[in-house]
Amino acid sequence: MPYYRVVGEVPRKRHTQFRRPDGGLYAEELMGEEGFSSDSSLLYHRYLPTAIVKAEAVTPATGTRLEPNLPLSPRHFRTQDLSSAGDLVSGRILLAGNGDVRLSYATSDRPSELYRNSMGDECVYVQRGRVRFESTYGVIEAGEGDYVVIPTGTIHRWVPQGTANVLAIEASGHIRPPKRYLSQYGQFLEHAPYCERDLRAPSEPLVVEGEEVPVLVRTRGGLTRLVYRNHPFDVVGWDGYLYPFAFNIEDFEPIVKKTHAPPPVHQTFEGPGFVVCSFCPRPLDYHPEAVPIPYNHHNVDSDEFMFYVGGDYSARAGSGIDVGSISLHPAGFTHGPQPGAVEAVIDAVSRGVTTTSEVAVMVDTFRPLDLGQGALSCEDPGYAWTWAR
Question: pLDDT tens for residues 65-90?
Fold first, then answer.
């Protein structure tokens, strides 16, 4: 994270004696990245965070197999047609992925078990509903339009307030704001489309009593369920630069040009081998002869995974794309507006339309995305041919 936070009680000096009311010592836990060479936080536990009493291997859920996008084709998946069983962790339906990132969709109204992803950071976008995100760092209340970014190794659970729909972006490494938005010291710069004030992190500790508490742990070797002697939510305070946070897509400030700007102006986060972009309501391009709609383009180094979450998609009129749709436009295929869309938007501008209302989350990957069984089960088979109608 780009700035320091302190929550709850911490001693004045790091790694010094910090005693409980009964005179015993609180147990320190350093959560750090890149072998003590990058961001970290120091957490103070009532009990030893190392005390486990049981470990058992867990058989992975079915439906986790990926297959190549062959024959190479643009795809349209309708998440509206998916129904998931389980919670917002166990009920994730794998849509696409590669060695860098896995993209899944989940719908649930039940709390998840405690979970730790030790393979990489997660960025979970809440499409609909409200959720309470609980972790060793505290609580984040999140709702529609929120990205919740979770550092590797954070023990957490999801508690929906009713039914919630989410897109889960699971990285093989760390997810951060783009470097070009930050100073050399980590502060957001003035040209960045969001800043520290837009980020919400836990503001107070979450202390829960409990014994022999199971935690599902994902590692590169598979899944394990560890049973902790005491509840992991026993942190009385922490400080540092590494912690979960939420950012709402409505707080993204679009960058506008006279003529159409390419997707990097929408970039919100970056991860190993991929970027996350937010397409938000914004003024249309304002050159008097602008074509205020995406031009045909071929990202020769990227696959484009676009999740349509709100508004009106004038560039995609006639394609079948609607709220809840996901399009996949792979490298090797040139894509762009549907036939007639350019003329329709120019006509709308001539009649006084000055803004676009679309809201979408895009993940661009720099290695090809393979397809999950979940995506193939809700595919619109006619999408690839809609430009030729």
Answer: 999 999 999 999 999 999 878 999 99
Please give the backbone phi and psi of residue 135, each rounded to the nearest 5 degrees, phi first: -150, 175
CA–CA distance, 273 with 68 (Å, rounded to integer): 18
Which two structure tokens, joined as six digits, stand for 61?
A: 């859920």
For residue 24, count CB atoms less than 10 angstroms from its CB and return exposed for 0-12, middle for 13-18, buried for 19 or more: exposed
d(CA 329, CA 141): 33
- The alpha carbons of the chain give a radius of gyration, in whole angstroms, of 22
**Cβ atoms within 10 Å, residue 313:** 23
End-to-end CA distance of the chain: 48
Handedness of CA 102, 64, 324, 143 (dihedral sign): negative
Q: Using one digit for the tens of pLDDT, what is the confidence trace for 266-279?
A: 999 999 999 999 99
Q: What are phi and psi of 104, to 5 degrees?
A: -135, 160
Q: Locate tokens 């039940």: which residue?
A: 110
Give the C-alpha separation, 335 to 347, whole Å. Answer: 22
Strand-strand pairing, 211-219 and 114-117: parallel
Place of tokens 């659970």: 157
